[in-house]
Amino acid sequence: MTVAERRALRPGRTLRLGAGRVVWEVRQYFRERDTVFFTFLFPTVIFLVFAAAFSSRDPIGVRPDGTGGISVAAYYLPGLVAAGVVLSGIQNLGIAIAQERSDGTLKRLGGSPLPVVSYFIGKAGSVLVTAAIQLVLLLAVAHLLFGVALPGDATHWFRFAWVFLLSILMAAVLGIGISGIPRTGRSASAVIVPILLVLQFVSGVYFTFSDLPDWLQTVAGFFPVKWVAQGMRSAFLPERFAAAEQHGTWDLGTAALVLVAWTVVGLVAARLTFRWVRRDG
Question: Which part of the chain is the ABC transmembrane type-2 domain (predicted)?
């Protein structure tokens, strides 16, 4: 091993380059106006549409005595928080890396001293930063404009924190993993967006999950989006709403296992498919 190779493997240097790459990735992200609108602002825009369009509907989950209901805005907030994670991680990274492979960016980086681990740190870190900012914006709009109550105790905030962080990790590595599926950067959106859009619709993001047929709920349970949305509902909705889930509970243990499993799938896919350039390129 050469001196240059040993230097590239130093953990401190790798982390410093990764941190610098996070800053660069975030700056590039916010310079792309179409990405900002269709990824960063999309959950907030959809929330505004839903909250305004259904503001006159009766509260959801009202008890027989007429108490305990929540607004439509409050009900849909967790699903759109989950959508933000999916869009920022899986969709954005999958498309962005495919485009970087096509336009020669990855080939240039492959010829630079940047370690591949630092590149991955930059991508994952940018997902965490942009998703966190997106989350703050969405919660502020929901709470300040529509009076949606945020979690009122440490238990629910802790539940939200681990679901959010584990979901971000899963989304980042899965986004890197699926970036090798599109053959070109131009086709990346056409390949990735429809898949994730369908998963969001069947995972309780835009529809009430309990309204879906049992077989479709079961199918959705094999994919991570459903568990991200269910985990977010467990953090933001009253505990009695767990009865409306497929098995009558929040089932957080299964949620954690599924998210970890898909994280492993993403890591394996990234290891097997990621190249600075395609082998056939």
Answer: 34-277
